[in-house]
């Protein structure tokens, strides 16, 4: 078997140029807004030529679309939730925390989507579908909690509660940015967002749910 040199091993660990371009673009789009960033800006930010960026992405829309697809993959992975094992509430809190982090990491997509998706109806439709999937998924989580006797919820209340939870998850980071002059989101802000979601669920909790939340009913 051919032995791998240290240099080859380091090269394997090094992120691919395409991945580095996406990371740099995401950082610039988040800081400056996608309308103010060009492929040349991305190359300059990375210390490579615009031609090198163009080799991987011919247009800025190609970069944005790749980032959107990247986000979709992470959101779907985050939705592979199966509450169980006696740690349902902890799992739910981890899910919400990850959702907030994703909203922050890809905030330009949510903040600027009216601009960059306006001329691409197929992408706009995917954004709408992603939002609808999010609401359906939250309803699914609530139903799992109901089946495990963590909450007591009437059928007609589930869609309303799911929508309110989704709204908090979707716009909490925007709210924090508006109050902190776009400073880096902190773990404290994420935990505060989780508390907002908990406050929405609290009125529907059963005694078992209260115990799992460590709240005295």
From TrEMBL:
It holds the Pfam family TetR_N. InterPro entries: Homeodomain-like_sf, HTH-type_Tx_Regulator, HTH_TetR, TetR. This is TetR family transcriptional regulator. The keyword Chaperone does not apply. It comes from Dictyobacter halimunensis. Residues 15-75 form the HTH tetR-type domain. The lineage of its organism: Bacteria, Bacillati, Chloroflexota, Ktedonobacteria, Ktedonobacterales. Keywords: DNA-binding. Residues 38-57 bind DNA. Signal peptide: none annotated.
């Amino acid at each position: 078997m051919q032995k791998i040199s240290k240099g080859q091993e380091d090269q394997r660990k090094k992120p691919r140029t395409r991945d580095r371009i996406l990371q740099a673009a995401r950082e610039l789009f988040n800081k400056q807004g996608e309308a103010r960033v060009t492929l040349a800006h991305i190359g300059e930010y990375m210390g490579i030529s615009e031609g090198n960026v163009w080799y991987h992405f011919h247009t800025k829309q190609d970069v944005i679309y790749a980032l959107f697809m990247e986000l979709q993959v992470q959101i779907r992975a985050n939705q592979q939730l199966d509450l169980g094992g006696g740690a349902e509430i902890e799992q739910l809190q981890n899910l919400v925390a990850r959702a907030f982090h994703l909203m922050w990491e890809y905030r330009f997509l949510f903040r600027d989507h009216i601009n960059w998706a306006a001329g691409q109806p197929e992408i706009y439709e995917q954004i709408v579908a992603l939002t609808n999937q999010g609401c359906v998924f939250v309803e699914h989580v609530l139903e799992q909690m109901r089946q495990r006797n963590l909450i007591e919820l009437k059928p007609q209340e589930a869609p309303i509660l799911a929508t309110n939870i989704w709204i908090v998850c979707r716009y909490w980071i925007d709210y924090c940015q508006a109050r902190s002059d776009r400073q880096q989101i902190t773990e404290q802000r994420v935990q505060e967002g989780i508390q907002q979601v908990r406050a929405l669920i609290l009125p529907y909790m059963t005694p078992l749910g209260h115990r799992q939340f460590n709240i005295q009913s």
